[in-house]
Write a structure and sequence with these properties.
7 helices, 7-stranded mixed sheet, Glycerol-3-phosphate (1)-acyltransferase, 38% helix, alpha/beta
Amino acid sequence: MAVRHLPNVVYETLRISIPTVIDGYLGTGSPETFDARLMSWSERILRCADVRLDVTGQPLPTFREAYVVMSNHQSVYDIPIMYQALRQRLRMVAKSELFRIPIWSRAMHESGTIELNRSDRRSAIESLKKAGEQIRCGTNVWIAPEGTRSRTGVMGPFKRGGFHLAIEAKVKILPITIDGSRHVMSANSLFMTPSQTIRVVVHEPVDTMAFGRKRRDELTRTVRAVIASGLQAELRGNVEVTADSD
């Protein structure tokens, strides 16, 4: 049975956003503080929805190095799912629309979330440079290369920008498949359906240095195929690469 999800989500989001904004004004925040808040927030969000995770695939990497983490994107619940599945320092590259939400927007900026404005090429390039700086400082950066949530569950074409980032930063890509989050809340809905089990498949990291700049499209198709392998055949979609700001 579908139930309204907004009150709990809003409360839990404000519960970490307000102190994060205050830390930003006072200069008292730290990556460790933000990590703890994001972990607490994601755990509570999933608990409110009675979401259970079944993490399978490769053993989780030791994270002695930072990765560009890439996954398919089925639901807004993918955000807390990724934090709880990996349980490592993780910041995401998020589209500008998410930064229109009062308080949450400022909290995202303060905690290290990277705003990506795909309609402004120069701004998008600067955003990817900031992501590269975070990776070099040891922070895993999560990108959903489809660019938006799938409205049908079928995986869409991948954009190139995140792959350019990984190549330039000389870091590996950690592919992740999220299977079933659309059943918790689809891209078309403001309602949540509780008590779902979400399968998360962790794949072996892909070495971007084996491809390089000239084979970026091949790298994109390779990573997409790896992520798609964790989905049912009808959800894998067509293998396409689309241009974006790079």
